[in-house]
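Section 3.1: Structural characterization of target chains.
Under the original work plan, the team committed to producing a structural model for every single-chain target entering the pipeline before any wet-lab resources were allocated. The record below documents one such target. The sequence was received from the expression subgroup and is listed exactly as submitted; it comprises 272 residues.
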Amino acid sequence: MAEIIKFADGTPGSIINENDDWYYADRERMNNTGLSEVKKGPLHYKRFLEGKPLEDTESYAWGRAFHCIVLEPDEFIKRFFIMQEEDILAQIGGKMPRGTKAYKEWKAEQLDEAGDKTILSQESYDVMRYLRDRVNALPELTNLLNACAKEKIMVDDINGVPCKMKADAISYGNFLIDLKTTSGLITDFEYSFNKYEYDRQMAFYSDIAQVTNVYIIAVEKSSPNGIGFFEVRPETLQRGRDKYNWLLDQYKKDFLQGGIQNFDTYCHKAYL
């Protein structure tokens, strides 16, 4: 495990002072999501490049909320709204209280109060708080997290391509930590790691952040909510580095070097 270096006032030049709105709207710099779209094919990346929104799944929203409650707890109430419906359901009663006029009127008022905040159920919120407390109960993990700056947007050019990433937790020049939830077992996390190509993501992040030590804290979303702490080996990072470099080459060929002249007539061709 890397030596803990306390976060100082000075930040490296790769840190930029932008917010999430900029990060997710910007298309000038490549990020890991963009790499995933490049892998799907040039038409998918073209859609992404044009700013057409990707599906905001319940799982993705859950992950954002969990990151916030663990890494930036003071920001949670500003970004998320808890739909506390237990009292209204008990008050209405019956077999299908959500189908009643009273419930619908109550929900409309709640949605109006929530505004632009992401809505979470009380059940989800309770689970997140429990998982947060599980993580915070482990000194080895909290000591590392406390040594880090949280949710920092970092940029760099890789192989001539402007790139960006958002670090969950970083000790500058030393190590970074990525926080993940999993619907599977912690003992099977290697399967998820390979399935979702986290090797590519971690290599991309580590190279932009210019660190060699990369850790993942993974938490089971379901009971008994196991927690895992994983160190990503150098050879695993190199494997991921090879993957993202290949995708950057594809991106440059198809989008920066005029490889595809007319997307309307584009057809993927390959041998089987």
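Residues 68 and 74 are 8 Å apart (CA to CA).
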